[in-house]
């Protein structure tokens, strides 16, 4: 009879670390490919669209992001938090998924009604024609509809770490978008062509994404009032911050759209395409770290160590990207074309702003994946104070001043959320330790 191999705890830890490193390298390399595809697509859009059209595209894309954030308002947090509790039960996970999708549709209608008038104003304010504005809005809606379900559906394979199928779908969507963008912009170098080329692949990708999610849930599961109520509790707490961050999260584009020139809007959109490289780390973090953190048992000291360690590693990686951008800024700008060749310092600022945003998002997502949310009144009050202070300090009529304002606000936001996360976990451990001590004393009696 063959004896089973016995591994020491140290050998088991090494094996787990090796498997985790292997998973990170696979996911990271795939995300790098995906982001390279997205960057190439973005650069083609920059080069093939006239400056004025690209400014309209930047405004429309920014407002699309605002609508997506507003339609979520904490629903994604609720699905991740509730799903992390029942991720191995197909029936209950199906209930969580369907309840989240139902809520997302309702919030989507509301966000559409709120943001569209703002989009109309900004486009016309920047000299878009009325007919052109209407066509841009019509082209934007399909991408928004696709966004209502894709971020929710992705939570299921992320919880089950079925990342291969998820990433394959993302890469396929990226490739189709690249091809459609080249063809459509070559024939029609207009904002509407770029928006349609973005929407169609997302719709097709959602069809396949639903099939991927269906492997882990019973799709016929009915929505649950209890789950809905739990999600709405999170939404009520997250909604004020969600509304605030819908606008503050894109503060650079908002300020430039109102106070700056059309060329500055195009410039900040172009720099954002290069800064998009930080999304590689954000995607790896979202796919691997966040779901695992949501599933972790509440063991003493474990959550705090993982929280601090993962944010530390992420900060080092992001700083490396900023340094490389500074070292090779001139060469990087040649990719964007002659219209943007003098923006060396602005490029470093844009990448720094994006990096701080990624770090802030990571600190928030780790905590919210456990169902913990910072009091929105406190958060908004501090951030508004930072915003007013930044407005007084920086020259908002220049691209440099607007980017510095974005970095300043992001740093304040990170400090708040990092402090809250560390304190929340530490206090939870104190409560847990006292509970365990009391239980031990009772048992000893």
Could you explain how this protein is built, in words?
The model is unreliable at 1-5 and 431-445 (pLDDT under 50). This protein has helices spanning 9-48, 51-72, 75-86, 90-125, 130-153, 155-159, 163-187, 191-214, 225-248, 251-259, 262-275, 279-295, 302-327, 329-333, 344-368, 376-393, 399-444. It starts with 8 loop residues before the first helix and ends with a helix. Helices cover 84% and strands 0% of the residues. The chain folds into two domains: 23-236, no CATH class; 249-433, no CATH class.
Helical content stands at over 70%
Distance between the termini: 47 Å
> What is the 3D shape?
globular
N-to-C order of helices and strands: HHHHHHHHHHHHHHHHH
Structural class by helix and strand composition:
mainly alpha
Rounded radius of gyration (Å): 23 Å
